[in-house]
């Protein structure tokens, strides 16, 4: 019996409950005695006195030649073979599936039956579980909710518990992890909420956040520069207005001053600029002098560099913004709906997908 997972460590974890059962299950010992074969008892491979052998194998490891005496494997249990990172890379996905077909599957004996069991979620439109299911003699797809929207195992998973989980994660994450329904590109945000923003004077403070995109060009092939004014009031985040375009660095700096004038004295504004390790030299050498020069002309603006180390862009967008949007807690200013910069922001939201094939600088 082969137990296969996405890594050797995870395959060993799959094998561990079997190993512990033979070591410490008193019922097994009472009926069959000590089944452990001396000298063949390790975490990743062990043999019973009956001759049955268990082996843990991680993806892409060499399974060739696996056998016990003359007996080749007759059972392969594959669990959590896919990972999110692998499914985002078609080349790795192809390599893993070819490894299963060309290296692992042929360890069998042609003259004997082989039982293959694949377990896992459909975490992507194309993944190894999907490919295995398409070839399987039988495929059970069990979701946390049935076709009528009710808990498929109410004795264990109550509607209250399911609803709580669903309220805490994005639609895409819930559909992927609990409904075996990976969303395609563009499905993360189906529509944006436009609404009336509260007067700026009601805010305790507002935030202007800018993405400088290190390119001093109006070339449409470059990254967008982005700068938006955001406020929080009564449980909702409001995007009052902002800028999203391909512009030169000087115009990007002007955006902070345009937003300063938009707010006036109505509330305190904190001005942030993204400044990770890759951007830092550009910020120090280009933007600091530009802000200093502009400050002499139009007055000083305090700029706070955001140096936080952040997760992947799509994960931040999906994890932080999608739940807010779904619950109507992320509001785009309806008074700015004809603003081309706000239109571009909405368009970028609606085109967001994990493959990140479309621009997402505004988002």
3D structure, described in words:
The chain has 363 residues and is an alpha/beta fold. The protein folds into three domains: 2-141, 3-Layer(aba) Sandwich (Rossmann fold); 142-182, no CATH class; 193-350, Nucleotidyltransferase, domain 5. Helix content is 35%, strand content 20%. A seven-stranded mixed beta sheet has the order 7-13-10-9-8-11-12. It has a six-stranded mixed beta sheet with strand order 2-3-4-1-5-6. The longest helix has 19 residues, at 280-298. The two termini are 48 Å apart. The relative contact order is 0.10.
Number of helices: 11
**What is the H-and-E element order?**
EHHEEEEHHEHHHEEEEHEHEHEH
Mean residue pLDDT: 91
Q: Sheet bearing the most strands, described?
A: 7 strands, mixed
Helix content bin: 25-40%
Q: Write down the overall geometry.
A: elongated
- Strand arrangement within the widest β-sheet reads 7-13-10-9-8-11-12
* Overall strand count: 13
Overall tally of domains: 3
Determine the N-to-C terminus distance.
48 Å
Computed over alpha carbons, the radius of gyration is: 28 Å
Q: Which structural category do the helix and sheet elements fall into?
A: alpha/beta
Q: How much of the residues is beta strand, in percent?
A: 15-25%
CATH architecture descriptor text of the largest domain: 2-Layer Sandwich
Poorly predicted sequence stretches spanning 5 or more consecutive residues? none
- CATH class label of the largest domain: Alpha Beta
CATH fold-level label of the largest domain: Nucleotidyltransferase, domain 5
